[in-house]
Amino acid sequence: MIETIVRPLLIIAAAMGTALTTAAGLIWLERRLLAVWQDRLGPNRVGPFGLLQVVADMIKIFFKEDWIPPFADRPVFVIAPALLVVSVLMSYAVVPFAPGIVVADLNVGLLFFLAMVSLGVYGLALGGWSSNNKYALLGAIRATAQMLSYEVFMGLAVMGVVILSGSFNLQQIVRAQEGMWFCIPQFAGLVIFLIAGFAESHRLPFDLPEAESELIAGFHTEYSGIKFGLFFVGEYMGITLISMMTVILFFGGWMGPLLPPVVWFALKTFVLICVFILMRASLARPRYDQLMHFAWKVLLPLALLNVMVTGAIVLAFD
Amino acid sequence: MALMDQPDITLNALRDRFGDAVGQRQTTADGIPTVWCAAEQTPEILRFLKNDAAHAFRTLYDLTAIDERRRIHRATQPASDFSLVYHLLSCERNADMRIKVPLTGDHPHMASVTGIWPTADWYEREVWDMFGITFNGHPDLRRILMPSYWQGHPLRKEHPARATEMGRYELPVEQQIREEEALRFKPENHGLTPRQDGTESMFLNLGPQHPGTHGVFRIALQLDGEEIVNAMPEIGFHHRAAEKMGERQTWHTYIPYTDRVEYLGGVMNNLPYVMAVEKLAGIQVPDRVKVIRIMLAELFRIGSHLVWYGTFFQDLGGLSPVFYMFNDREHFYQIITAITGGRMHPSWFRIGGVAQDLPKGWDTLVRAFLDYMRPRLKEYEQIILRNRIFKMRTIGIGRLTLDEALEKGVTGPNLRACGIDWDLRKKRPYSGYDQFDFDIPTAVGGDCYDRTLVRVEEIRQSLRIVEQCLTQMPAGPYKADHPLTTPPLKHRTLQDIETLITHFLGVTWGPVIPAGEACASVEGTKGNNSYYLISDGNIHAYRVRIRTPSFPHLQIVPHLCRGLMLPDLLAILGNIDYVMSDVDR
To answer: What is the CATH number of the domain that holds B339?
Structure first.
């Protein structure tokens, strides 16, 4: 009884709780870290170190008028942000935080993650399209093209890992890294996966769907209040998810000496999240066509080459 | 000197060719050859001056008008109700020419010169908007600065300048609806037409409220996907009637308005204004004044370029540098605050001098800034100029050839990036720039990256100039000893009655500047900035014409962005460095 019902429920609650609190905490973390790198202070007034700023933001965003523009396609406009958040949250189901601590230990966990990431693009595309605003539409077009393209390399980039570990199950992939983390033999895969991850989470330098200086706020120009909040939270959960997956696939997941596995997992994820934020602080945004050229002319051949070389080596040594 | 003979050669050539159409020569306080021409032949004369190799006035530097109907001191000039002023410039020959055209009648007509200089488009629209002079043959003679529903032409003398001269302001509902309707985005109102080949294109209204336009600027776009098929800028949202205000503010009290014309330039805007007034008044300023003015102007150039540098990179998506540069600007503002007491708009230059002497310890502040700024520039070179994404976004984008730039009235760093070292500080050293050792950076490509390189190097050169000001600051008075210096020197007011009277009048009424016309130009932060002042022997100007660099720069945006993509447009807008207050005045 305890083993079959309570434990999974606890894990689910913990996973959900982690996802949502990290997203909220990340808002604070990003603002403070960016401030450090940009020679300024950031939010430091509300609560200790400005930590309660998140609470203030949340209160504001929850109590803001939930306004839907009269020209928008109402049902789709409402569903779109939820779709994004749900698809990201679903991915958390297959994330192994520590040995045995996973909501659903699927045999095709990796494929499930890729599938859910693909679904996420609907949130952006539908949100932009239903807003009935030209800026939102341009943002949605960019989002669709960018995310569909980069999904391809994300899938291809992890194939090397699958070949080496011989499994789509994320726990087994972690266990297969006992001797050596895959970031060494699969370095090319790691780089491609990270770049694709940046593009999938549409963060700078790949924030073209939003592109403030060009498209005002891109696909979520017309959104406000909690619906905007959902897009916002979805983005941060996306960052966390990509960081977690990178840790699982390339940096040995929960493995590490002395500290408990969950702590190791959290630490590694944290470092990667900081890398995400650092990227935002340091890079400019390429143009839409340059981004697509980079995807299809550079990343695609690289990813394919990586799969071929890995496959050949594995074949030769088995 | 060949330059001195040139006006006569040009005038003789004109007289030979056009006979009586070329009238008398007018003497002006600025020495720019000014000649009156008959309205009918003027387009031909202008075409000749532009295309004839010996004259080659390739740039229409300015085009404006004067409402002459209430002017008293112009007996020697041809009778006219309105005069058109074409200010021509030849960068290659470093020569100016002013053609004046007398027009009679309440709403006169004139032939358009858009066929000769496409850049006359906006200038003629402005003259029509402000004076009600119709230009026959102009392709699109609409209002440009005033809203389309405006009644009257503001720079005409009968148009009221103050609220107290007008009736009570009322906004009936119908009028409100009409005015709101006028703001609605209709592509055809912007001169955009659907494609003829049956394919549809998207019309996008960008601005006046948009994070990428740097101020209230609107540009109507015709897009094919994200490719820009056509673009039509709309300006006037930042119009504050600076020229009209010049006709009611005294010569002295107008100085603060000039600060706000190009709001990043601060005292750089005071400089051409006070120089023009000093030309009219015949004031020679002491050396110390010249060097103080140069030092502050160059500091403001650095400040303006820093804002541009950071915001331009931000337009390309780079978030951080803008914060670094605003921090740097804070260091520069420490100097400005210590010296002037103000920040963005110190209004610190005076007719015949500056407001106060430099405070004690100014040199340590300036020295500290120089030591601080130089290594920072090296750092920015690393994070911006060598950034691969930055290069991808700027090289080959918004390319302008030298010919186009000259024809379109482009000046300043935008022109120098096309490969000509046209810089008024070297070519016509004003305020003592000839005493300084500095280089004029140029580039050849004329694209966004080259313009960036030129501006970044200009920051370095300005630092060099400031350093020389620091080491060679002459001693002496900070104001000229001249009755028209404002506020006048006080030391002899209680000793002799003449000085007391001048002082009393100068302070209560404001100085009476002798009748005449003078134009003073400086190499401003964004390009050549000129004040063309007409005095009718009164305490205020009869007409103030402000020629700003951003006006022609913004006019070339459609030319630069056609065929590129939407993000490129924002890159170009960020790159050509304009501020809307400088465009609309």
So the answer is: 1.10.645.10
